[in-house]
UniProtKB/TrEMBL annotation:
It comes from Zhongshania arctica. PROSITE patterns: THIOREDOXIN_2 (PS51352). Thiol-specific peroxidase that catalyzes the reduction of hydrogen peroxide and organic hydroperoxides to water and alcohols, respectively. Plays a role in cell protection against oxidative stress by detoxifying peroxides. Keywords: Antioxidant, Oxidoreductase, Peroxidase, Redox-active center. Its EC number is 1.11.1.27. InterPro entries: PRX5-like, Redoxin, Thioredoxin-like_sf, Thioredoxin_domain. The lineage of its organism: Bacteria, Pseudomonadati, Pseudomonadota, Gammaproteobacteria, Cellvibrionales. Belongs to the peroxiredoxin family. Prx5 subfamily. Residues 3-159 form the Thioredoxin domain. It comes from the Bacteria. This is Glutathione-dependent peroxiredoxin. It catalyses: a hydroperoxide + 2 glutathione = an alcohol + glutathione disulfide + H2O.
Amino acid sequence: MSIQTGDKIPAVTLKVMGEKGPQDISSEEIFSGKKVVLFAVPGAFTPGCTLTHLPGYVVNADKMKAKGVDTIACLSVNDAFVMDAWGKSQNAEELMMLADGNCELTEALGLVLDGSGFGLGKRSQRYAMIVDNGTISHLAVEPAGAVDVSAADKILALL
């Protein structure tokens, strides 16, 4: 069963790249007392994620922050090294690049994508959510292969 609007974000530890390498960051630290736009992709450097999904958030980051968003976070079931390199390659300095390398948050949300048929193992479904102080106020999960309801312009219109 996947998470729904009105539910709280589960308590897990993710990774971000720090000055000295990968660092732990708790979901509480990311979401508590903040308005956060979290979007997830099946994989860093993959075509739909790199050409369509991530760029929309990079381009619209200032507009989202002007509407009261404290943090825009991109999550993938990749490691912190990959997420950091992908963020740098896409000029995503305004975004928090979250590594869910062990698929812990993705599994807790019930939003796992089985990519084993493509040699990808467990991945995240493509989605976006607006989270207010740890509670999901909007959730948009994409059908397989689509980048529509979770696109930055759709989320921006809801803020």
